[in-house]
C-alpha cells in the first residue's frame, strides 16, 4: 500500500477548508456511533446499488462473491475507506483518493489492520493515469469541491472506455435544506459545517456536467428514509440521489 500525494496538473478542485473539516473527523471515521454514523448507515444502501450496477454492466452472477476480480476501482473522496474496503472484498484492486491527509492515514491504518492491499493517495486527481479504472465511485463529494466542472472532467478521464461510474450526492431542494442541513446538524446527525446547501447540485445540473465531459448518466434513483425501511433506494429524489454514468458511444 502507499499513501503518496497527488499534485494537481490542472484546475484545483479541493477546497482547503473542506479538507480541514473532514480531516478533523478522521480519528472517529470508523466508529459507527461517532461523527460518521450517518455514513455507516448509508454504506449498505450505496453498496447495494453499486452491486446491482456491477452485475448489470458486466453481466456478473449475483451469487458471485467477488464480481470485481480483475477489475480496478477508484473511490474519489474516500474518507477513511468505508467504501474502499468492501469494494476490495468484492475482488477489486482499489485506489482511494481524498483531500485530507488525516483521512488517508486513518484509511491506510485500518486497511492494514484488515489485511486489505488498498492503495491510498492524498490530493487531486490530475496525475492519475487516464482511463485506468474500470469502476469509479464518488459518493457525496461533488458538493464539497471548488470547481464542479473540472472535477467531473477529471472523473471522466479516470474511467476506462468500457467502465462504469457510480455517483451520489444531495439534491438542492427545500426538503434537503430543512432535513440534511438544518435538522441534521441540530440533532447532531452530522457535524456542524458538513453541508452547505447552496453547493448542492440537482440531477439535471449533474447530468449536464457529465454530458459535457463525454459521459451519459442513467436515470437517478433516490436515497430516501422512513421509519419502517430506514435508508433505502426509492423514487424520491428530494434528499439524496444515486446513479451510474458511462462514456458515450
UniProtKB/TrEMBL annotation:
Its EC number is 2.1.1.222, 2.1.1.64. Gene3D superfamilies: Vaccinia Virus protein VP39. GO terms for molecular function: 2-polyprenyl-6-hydroxyphenol methylase activity; 3-demethylubiquinol 3-O-methyltransferase activity; lyase activity; polyprenyldihydroxybenzoate methyltransferase activity. Keywords: Methyltransferase, S-adenosyl-L-methionine, Transferase, Ubiquinone biosynthesis. One of its GO terms (biological process) is methylation. S-adenosyl-L-methionine binds at residues 46, 77, 98, 139. This is Ubiquinone biosynthesis O-methyltransferase. It comes from Altericroceibacterium spongiae.
Amino acid at each position: 500500500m502507499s499513501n503518496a500525494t497527488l499534485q494537481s496538473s490542472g484546475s484545483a478542485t479541493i477546497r482547503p477548508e473542506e479538507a480541514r473539516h473532514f480531516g478533523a473527523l478522521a480519528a472517529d471515521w470508523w466508529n459507527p456511533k461517532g461523527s460518521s454514523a450517518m455514513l455507516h448507515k448509508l454504506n449498505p444502501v450505496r453498496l447495494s446499488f453499486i452491486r446491482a450496477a456491477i452485475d448489470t454492466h458486466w453481466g456478473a452472477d449475483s451469487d458471485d462473491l467477488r464480481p470485481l476480480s480483475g477489475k480496478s476501482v477508484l473511490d474519489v473522496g474516500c474518507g477513511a475507506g468505508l467504501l474502499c474496503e468492501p469494494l476490495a472484498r468484492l475482488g477489486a484492486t482499489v485506489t482511494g483518493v481524498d483531500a485530507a491527509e488525516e483521512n488517508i492515514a486513518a484509511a491506510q491504518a485500518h486497511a492494514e489492520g484488515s489485511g486489505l492491499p488498498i492503495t491510498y493517495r492524498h490530493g487531486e486527481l490530475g496525475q492519475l493515469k487516464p482511463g485506468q479504472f474500470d469502476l469509479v465511485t464518488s459518493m457525496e463529494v461533488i458538493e464539497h469541491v471548488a470547481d464542479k466542472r473540472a472535477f467531473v472532467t477529471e472523473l471522466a478521464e479516470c474511467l476506462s472506455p468500457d467502465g462504469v461510474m457510480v455517483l451520489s450526492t444531495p439534491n438542492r431542494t427545500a426538503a434537503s435544506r430543512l432535513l440534511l442541513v438544518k435538522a441534521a446538524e441540530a440533532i447532531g446527525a452530522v457535524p456542524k459545517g458538513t453541508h452547505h446547501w447552496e453547493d448542492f447540485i440537482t440531477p439535471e445540473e449533474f447530468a449536464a456536467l457529465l454530458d459535457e465531459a463525454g459521459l451519459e448518466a442513467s436515470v437517478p434513483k433516490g436515497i430516501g428514509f422512513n421509519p419502517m425501511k430506514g435508508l433505502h433506494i426509492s423514487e424520491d429524489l428530494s434528499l439524496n440521489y444515486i446513479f451510474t454514468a458511462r462514456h458515450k458511444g
